[in-house]
Amino acid sequence: MNSKNIVITILALVLIGAIIYLFINKSDDTVVMIDDQVTSSDKTVSEATDETGPEGEAEQVMAEERGEETVIGKSVNGSDIVAYHFGSGDKEILLIGGVHSGYAPNTAALGNEFVKYFSENEGTIPANVMVTVIPNLNPDGASKTGTAGRNNAHNVDLNRNFDCEWSAKAVWRSEEVSGGTKAFSEPEAIALRDYVTQYDPIASIVWFSAEGKVYPSACATTPSKASIELAAKFAQSAGYPAEAEFDAYAITGDMVNWMAKQGVSSISVLLSDYKNTEWSKNLAGVKAVLSSYAE
Questions:
Q1: Quick one: angle between helices 105-120 and 279-293, nearest 10?
Q2: How many structural domains are present in the chain?
Q3: How far is the C-alpha of 22 from the C-alpha of 19, rounded, in Å?
Q4: CB–CB of 96/204 below 8 Å?
Q5: Could you tell me if 91 and 153 lie in one domain?
Q6: pLDDT above 90 coverage of the chain, percent
Q7: Nearest CA among 7, 59, 86, 80 for reference residue 197
Q8: Global pTM?
Q9: How far apart (Å, rounded) are the C-alpha atoms in residues 221 and 12?
Q10: 274 and 104 in contact (C-beta within 8 Å)?
């Protein structure tokens, strides 16, 4: 082989080697790029998990550590709607007054009596129970007198504004009242809805006036066994008659029935008149309910 052919052969080998080198490096770069994409994708999933985890934990902590009171919302005129918390158990029971605060002021007064009582006697609450008292759901109505005091500042009857067989044109006795422009059109109803949805209480007792009776609750169905038993327990201890259902006239958008729809065992307690809180009777009823949920 002459020197020319040797040179050509060497050049050819060098060229082939260069091509092979470039091909190998090209493949490595592709693998590295793919690995980078996988790593980036995994990091995104990890970061999303990390972001979701603490948020869920924060909600749990918030649910367990609400402190002594919570502003759950504001009325149409900007007044705070306050919930007072007693005990630290995982079974929460709501006590609610002042739905028709100006018309039935004794229901809000009774709520405040429960706040005072549990502030001084928190040890009477079973260890596995939390009692939350919302003494006045309708603070704007408190400044009104007569039947106008049933309504909020939008002239809506809050007990016709919840999402249970809701109707814009509702009735109270033989009178037409407003159920709002839609279910939960009113900030007071929204405040209670959001609280119940977030914290999922096990039971609720809501006071109205005036008949001197206790009713279980249900939305477009028969009351649950738990609601019937709760009404019977409260009524027996408080000395009120317990009725199977309220049928004096059609009720739409009822708050207590909506809570029953959410799986909360709920009862309506109608005080005997519009002035007296009937404190001893209602305290006995509440104590009986608390005992029934004790471990």
A1: 60
A2: 2
A3: 5
A4: yes
A5: yes
A6: 71
A7: 59
A8: 0.78
A9: 91
A10: yes
Instruction: Count Cα atoms within 13 angstroms, Cβ side, for 110.
Output: 33
Q: Final residue of a domain: which of 50, 65, 80?
A: 65
pLDDT digit string (tens) for 159-205?
Answer: 999 999 999 999 999 899 999 999 999 999 999 999 999 999 999 99
Q: What is the pLDDT of residues 36-78, one digit of tens each?
A: 333 333 333 333 333 334 443 433 444 456 889 999 999 999 9
Q: Give the position of tokens 């705070």.
A: 80
The CATH code of the domain that includes 251 is: 3.40.630.10
Burial class of residue 256, CB neighbours in 10 A (0-12, 13-18, 19+):
buried
User: pLDDT tens digits, residue range 98-149?
Assistant: 999 999 999 999 999 999 999 999 999 999 999 999 999 999 999 888 889 9
Tell me the H-state helices in 207-273.
225-238, 255-261
Sort residue 237 into left (φ over 0), alpha (ψ -120 to 50) or beta.
alpha
Neighbour tally for 158: CB within 10 Å: 28
Please tell me the distance from the alpha carbon of residue 158 to that of residue 155, in angstroms, as a whole number. 9
Domain end marker among 49, 65, 81: 65
Phi (first) and psi of residue 86, to 5 degrees: -135, 135
The DSSP 8-state label assigned to residue 76 in this structure reads: T
Burial class, 288, CB count within 10 angstroms (exposed 0-12 / middle 13-18 / buried 19+):
middle
pLDDT of residue 146: 83
